[in-house]
DNA sequence: GTCTATAGGGTGATAGAC
DNA sequence: GTCTATCACCCTATAGAC
């Protein structure tokens, strides 16, 4: 039983080290691009020669896959929980906006890679990622639809509205690093104010 | 004088062929990525061996530079003309929205490369591009500021509003190819309706 | 677990024949 | 203008010693 506890509860050193390497890779991929970053560079940053590096990573593409999952999986879980809350569509969209911006701001490297390099995923990895992205967009789409059904929103085309909302948020990764001091809560409020009420004086 | 006219007015065959190769490269870079596309592939698509190809292109990076300029230069010129019109800030922003979406929809490959691969530009090329992007964003920023000065808009933070506006538009390149039949005029109207008046029922 | 050596295959760019 | 041959260098991944 002591042995069982050690393998199931104690941290797996190999998995821990692999996690560190994933973060190192995310930083390199974000600053130089996936294709332009060599396995050698990742090894140098992790202080590991190539042979030892491959003991942890398996392949370069599996690092890319894990970077994607680290952003997408918590985002999907949180957005799903928020959508299930008993609150107005506007209130729930505001919360989704905030968790999305938190990922973009606090896991900036991973999000950059996620939004820039998903085409470097191949085969099943690519298809799995595509499905998760559709799932997230559907959560947002359904919130807009719920708002229209409740008479809370007036929307000409639901899909365009969803894509405008997601696009406005996602694009944040392009500039947020150059504006330090911006926080998810403030930005979420400003985006939501614009999206729900517009900027025209009334 | 006849000879002078021929060199200054008649089309330069080399420049024409180079232009065709730039378009071929844009299509390849957009579908596979800049780093993942080889000079050999560009040559195959253009039906030219490497030696002949280099006679036209100079270098791979100069192709990337020209793809950027083909999007940015007309956009800057049109946006500058629109900003100088005597019209409300909302009307002028609506026109800027439309020319931006026209570039995104009708020069989709070039825009994809432009928004995805600008980090592969080096040295002066990169700096020149950065300046042009700032120039475009300043045109949009000044339109928002003019709207506030006229009492037409109420905006908490000008720069956030500008970035939200630009981001909502730019992100369009990610999905517009999967929705055929979308035109710049319709999309521009929908984006502007959301941005100026919001989606909440009043 | 970590290393070095190497396999097997790319890359962008240029020289020089025609 | 277009070609082939080649330069110098890079890549991901694996084998096998320690």
Structural summary, described in words:
- The first copy, chain A, is mainly α and 202 residues long.
- In chain A, 73% of the residues lie in helices and 0% in strands.
- Chain A has 10 helices and no strands.
- The first copy, chain A, has helices at 2-8, 13-32, 39-46, 50-57, 60-83, 89-106, 108-116, 123-149, 158-170, 184-197.
- In chain A, helix 2 crosses helix 3 and helix 2 crosses helix 5 (60-83).
- Chains A and B meet through helix 9 and helix 10 of A and helix 9 and helix 10 of B.
- The structure holds a DNA duplex (18 and 18 nucleotides).
Which word captures the global form of chain A? elongated
Taken as a percent bin, the fraction of beta residues of chain A is under 5%
| Order of SSEs of chain A | HHHHHHHHHH
| Mean pLDDT reading of chain A | 94
Distance between the termini of chain A: 70 Å
